[in-house]
Structures are given as structure tokens and as C-alpha cells.
Write a structure and sequence with these properties.
Number of strands: 0
Radius of gyration: 19 Å
Protein name: TetR/AcrR family transcriptional regulator
Mean pLDDT: 90
Organism: Streptomyces anulatus (Streptomyces chrysomallus)
Order of helices and strands: HHHHHHHHH
Strand content: under 5%
Helix content: over 70%
Keywords: DNA-binding, Transcription, Transcription regulation
């Protein structure tokens, strides 16, 4: 059991993450100050420095935290699908839906993550690569199982296919939220599901 001090600290960190992610998504990293993050989170400025050594460290932790949540939800979707006796392709389908649900829940974090992914020379570039690899690795594992079980062709390039699936979900979901918000998650999921099953070409 966790002590109340630990729980309280986690709650404070969660508030700081949420404040930081919305501010940075609105204004950009450079323009966001620690004072503003503290004010938005409703805590004293010293609390920010008690929890994180610097704004950069807060941002790195934010990336780890957010992608950690995404990775956990992808893994849970694949495991639930397997427990129901589903195929590996059905597990991938469940992961697409879990990814969409995550992005629907954390749109500001997703925008931030996608924007940072292709920037270079950032202090947190190495952290970003590590957390990206964690999320992609979950998809790679299921693709590898699908190839091993004969569900998917041995010709597929697993690392690129995994990256393409993750990228497809991220970009399609951001497009959905920015330009097609009237669509339901079911509609977006079924469109991506057709792509996954290779049915767009009409075969």
C-alpha cells in the first residue's frame, strides 16, 4: 500500500503534467514559464522545483508519462483481445481503437508529442526516441506473433509496419479532431480497420 505522502505527490505531479501539457500545446515550450505552470496547476512555484529540477526535466517526464500511458493502453488492448481468443490481426485492430481512445482523451499531449517527434536538437531528443520505441515495440511484438503464426506474410517489414501503424493512428486521430470532429470514434476506427485489413484496394 502506498503512503498518503506518495499518493499526494503523484496527484501533484499529475496536476503539473496536465498544466504543462495544455500550456505548452497552446504557447510552445520556450514561451511557457514555470510560474505559469505552477499557477495553472494551482501550486506554489517551489512545488514545481521540488518535483522536477527544471522545466526541461518536467517536459521529459511529461513525455515519458504520456507515452507510458499510451503504451500501457495498447498492451492492455492486445492482451484483452488474446484472452478473448482473438487473432493477432484482431489484436492490432483493438490496439488501433485503444490508440484512438487515448488520443481522444489526451488531445493536447498527442499534438505536443507529434510536433516534438520530428524536431531535432532538442534536449529531450533521446528521451523521445526511447519512449517512441516503447510504444512501437508493443505493436512490433504483435506483428511478429502474427507472422510467426502465419496470419501475416513473412515479407512484411516489422519495424516499418509497426511505425506506419502507430503513425497512421496518430495522424488520423489528430486530423479527426482538428477537421472532422463530428465523426464518432467508431467511424474513424472502422476506416482505419479497413486499411489494416488491406481492403481499401477492393480485393
Amino acid at each position: 500500500m502506498e503512503s498518503s505522502g506518495t499518493t499526494r505527490r503523484q496527484a501533484t505531479r499529475q496536476k503539473l503534467y496536465e498544466a504543462a501539457v495544455t500550456l505548452i500545446a497552446e504557447k510552445g515550450f520556450s514561451a511557457t514559464t514555470v510560474d505559469e505552470i505552477a499557477e495553472r496547476a494551482g501550486v506554489a512555484k517551489g512545488t514545481v522545483y521540488y518535483n522536477f529540477k527544471s522545466k526541461t526535466e518536467l517536459f521529459e517526464e511529461l513525455l515519458r508519462h504520456g507515452v507510458g500511458l499510451l503504451t500501457a493502453s495498447l498492451r492492455a488492448a492486445a492482451e484483452e483481445s488474446a484472452e478473448r481468443g482473438g487473432t493477432r490481426v484482431e489484436a492490432l485492430d483493438a490496439m488501433i481503437r485503444a490508440g484512438l481512445a487515448f488520443i481522444d482523451r489526451y488531445p493536447a499531449f498527442t499534438q505536443l508529442y507529434v510536433a516534438e517527434l520530428w524536431r531535432t536538437n532538442r534536449a529531450w531528443q533521446s528521451t523521445l526516441l526511447v519512449v517512441r520505441q516503447e510504444a512501437v515495440a508493443v505493436v512490433e511484438d504483435v506483428l511478429r506473433e502474427a507472422v510467426d503464426s502465419g496470419e501475416l506474410s513473412e515479407e512484411i517489414d516489422i519495424p516499418l509496419t509497426a511505425a506506419a501503424l502507430v503513425g497512421m493512428v496518430l495522424v488520423a486521430a489528430l486530423d479527426w479532431q482538428a477537421f472532422q470532429p463530428e465523426r464518432s470514434i467508431d467511424e474513424v476506427h472502422s476506416a482505419l480497420s479497413l486499411l489494416l485489413h488491406g481492403r481499401v484496394s477492393g480485393h
